[in-house]
Amino acid sequence: MTGGEVLVDHTSLHSFVRPVGSPSQLTFRAREILQTTEALLFGDVVWLCDSVTDATMDVTMHVYERFRAAGLATSRGDGVIRIARFARGEIEAACLDAAGALCDYVEHLTPSDLRSASSVHHPVRPIGAQELAYLRTLNIPYGSEQASTYVEDAISGKGWLPSSCLHLLQADLNAWMAVVMKDAVGEADPALSSYNTISRWKFNEALASRLSVTKPVTYVPAYGRSIEVDAIHAVAWDRRLSVLRAALQQATLGQRLRLRDLLEVAPARSMGMPLFGIWVIRGISDSPCTLERLADAIARAREDPRFVRFKHWLLEASDDDVRGAADDAVQEFARTHGRMPVRVEQAVSKWKAVLELPVIPGYLKVKREDAGTTSTMREKATFFRRLTMPRHVTALVGLFEGAFVPRRDGSLLECVQQIIASASRP
Known about the structure:
This protein is mainly alpha-helical. Helices cover 61% and strands 4% of the residues. The chain has a 4-stranded parallel sheet, with helices on both faces. Helix 2 crosses helix 19 (412-423). The protein starts with a strand and ends with a helix.
């Protein structure tokens, strides 16, 4: 059992070197780094696409070399972190797939919806990305020779360009985008920023599907992009739900039952605590914390037999097993440490409050093949998982200790600040 392969944004790696100008930016950067650390910890292979600008790739390779020194990447390109190289035909196919998926997604969204979900104060694009220039396509007629020329150039380009042409590949999407652009107040309009986020999301998902030749590859957005996608996702669902509720009023009894089924599957929106990322950074024994030491800590944690066994159990255990083990671990942690500092109690309470969410990062999926197995076999498998649970409760207690017990040589934010300073480019 493995953690799967993931495609991450260059923005995620750039979080290690992007300058921090305020305390709020440092808090945001810490969350971004913790999420990236978890992807590097759990991913069997962590892919980065090559369809970015030279300036963006230059920053990425600066960070890549630090991880290569820790053994997480190799000069042969067969390490944990790898660069995916796409042919022009693959980029074109990804654009076509993304245009169709994007059209279906934005069907019920309006420009005001996009503005309300925008998080332009977060860095959702990598260093070295081109400035957005959607408005220059406003007067390009759909299906025209001018549109074909723009699409041809965009697909052959890098960075923002391939995803900038999606609305010129799909008629309904083009009509929707024309409304957004006519309502926009310049390229900096938050609606265009949000549109760019979801178009890159769908484009990168299409690229991930092209990497899924022998194993599935899941796209994991950078922290800032995932927040914005989450907000847009909520608006999209709220819009769909209002349409469904309106339809419900006019529906027959049979139609109402089907529509109510749809109302029940509205996705939950919340970001889990990056406990494993905290655990890894807390495990950096030497001070100051540096990117090299973080890379070494990730490499060690990936190979630690305790973590490997624990990860396999997390992937195989049922949700009830995981929640039960986590509850037991919280109680054991509190008993072992007696009266804890208030901030630790609050942290543990926060963790306990999100136990309804998966303990592991959300992109880790497990396909259980139940076909051919009897109910008795499944019951035995559950029994043996529960039998080994005490060992995993102990592992979780260790995780809590690593994540919540304060370091003597600096807070978590201080460690993150040191990592960023160490990784800064000359």
